[in-house]
Amino acid sequence: MLGFQKKSLNLLKLSVEKTETGLMQLNLGDHEVKIRQEPENIPPNQSKLSKLTQIKTNSLESPAENNIFVAIASQEGFKYINNVKHQLHSKMEDFSVPALTMSESCLSFKTSFDNNHVFILADGHGGADAGEFMANRISDLIKIFINNENNVEWNLNLQQDSLKMKLGLEEIFNKVDKEYCEKKILEYTAFKNMLENKDIKESVNKPVDDGCTLIANILINSIHGKWLVNANVGDSRTIVSQLKLKSKTLSSPLSSAHLNLDSTQPQIESITKKKTNLLQKMHRSLSEPILSKNGLNGSNGILFQSVDHNMSHVVKLNFINDNGGKFLSPFANFIDPNLIPNSSSIYSPFQTSRVYRPASDQVKQIGVSHKRTLNLSSTMGDLLFKIEPAVLCSKPDISIVKLDSNEKTLLVAATDGIWDHLRVRDSKSQNEQVFQFLNDEINGFFHSKVYNEDLLEEKFLNLAKKMVIRENSQTKLFDSRFCIRFDDAMVQLILI
Questions:
Q1: DSSP classification of residue 46
Q2: Closest residue by Cα to residue 348 from 361, 366, 365, 335
Q3: So which residues are the signal peptide here (predicted)?
Q4: Interval 85-119: pLDDT, tens
Q5: Distance in angstroms (rounded) separating the CA atoms of residues 167 and 416
Q6: Which end of the chain is less enclosed by CB atoms within 10 A, N or C?
Q7: What is the tens place of the pLDDT at every residue in 276-286?
């Protein structure tokens, strides 16, 4: 009855290359930087010019290496009718693991990265049940999967381990999606039977056909390294970036005491001055963000960004069309599928379209309404679109990101209630804008007089709160001047 079709996915390939002895090579996008490392112990008879002050580029105070700081914040959706504010849904439809309680809209905590961690973010539509069910069930299964019975350490640099991770997560998503849809079939079947039973007089509520987007961000810590594994279905989004923390002070990288120079040697002094200037330049370049034609760190500081499964995702649009789905314009007209572009474009006529599933014998037999439409190109749940042949798929994009233990990494996961209200519209600019805002805020805190690690958790929570307040925002991220409807919003900030 249900169809769960497979799609090919590309894993993010990671590799580490060794260089010749004494040479450290860094590959940063279009840039290749090579730095010769001098031996630490220099014989006394060696040239005085070789004995230079060691530069410590990471001198800024920062959280302990194995600590993870987490902040989660949410805001229930609302709308204005005749200038009167109304709640958008009867219940918050965004759901997080770790979960927020009914009485709280935010939480923060500090934990150790000595173990593996799982963070889930689900954005429900049509109701709140799917998001809560999917998030809890998938979280439980992922924890069992990554913390395997044999305690085998993951090494995601190896193709066999990365493939095992990919296939394992795909199986979990498919399993849970199938469980939920089968649960809904039973509800619809029971509802039909009750309607046909004339002895039942009490009113019976019709089942709700709902679904959700879902992001799983998994932090893996093993003897082989640390990784982020991202699994994504839908249009909630994850971005990962390295924080660019500016040094508080720049100590002099070179002094005459270290060089022990004789003032009667003007030629040596001249050479030394040139070498000092060069070293100072190196110090500045290593202490500040590396710039390229694309911006910070090769891509405006962004190490990874998930791809939204929205109505501009060409591969998924073709999948929908091939399996009998239709595309409705905002004016309720069908859009010619031959107009599907060859590449994603925010100017495509499909960008504002919705997916429609015509009634079939299977749909009628189950009793689910075929009048629902969606503006997503993949989802979890949504029984109507999963009845065979499935119009939408639930196979996640899987990406693996190697984490640098010497760098502070910031992860942002947010539902579309945040992304849809940003001032800029394209995802690349949105990601850069959000990262720049958070990077500047964290830098400002590190440089403030009140900085200490104990206050970092509180600061992180305040940042998360700022991210979900879109109307009359304290930031320049949002523009709500002409907006009368705000969807539920939730964000997870994780500092690694």
A1: S
A2: 335
A3: none
A4: 999 999 999 999 999 987 789 999 999 998 899 99
A5: 27
A6: N
A7: 454 444 443 33
